[in-house]
Amino acid sequence: MNNIILPELGEGITKATVACWHVKVGDQIHAGDEVCEVTTDKATFNVEAPASGRLQSITVRPGQDGLVGGVLGIIE
Q: pTM score > 0.85 for this model?
């Protein structure tokens, strides 16, 4: 299993809000695919899949905040 992690987004940014997921649980994804979009008060970022596989679960849903370094979803 591989975790989709909220990456460092900039100095002083500790969290971001998930705006939307581009994939749903059960979808096959490939390393480097943009899987979700997150926003801060300054910008919008796309988060990429770290590995290929099926999206097993989404741990931070649209409208919820994730912490930098925290798990947004899990790939099996």
A: yes
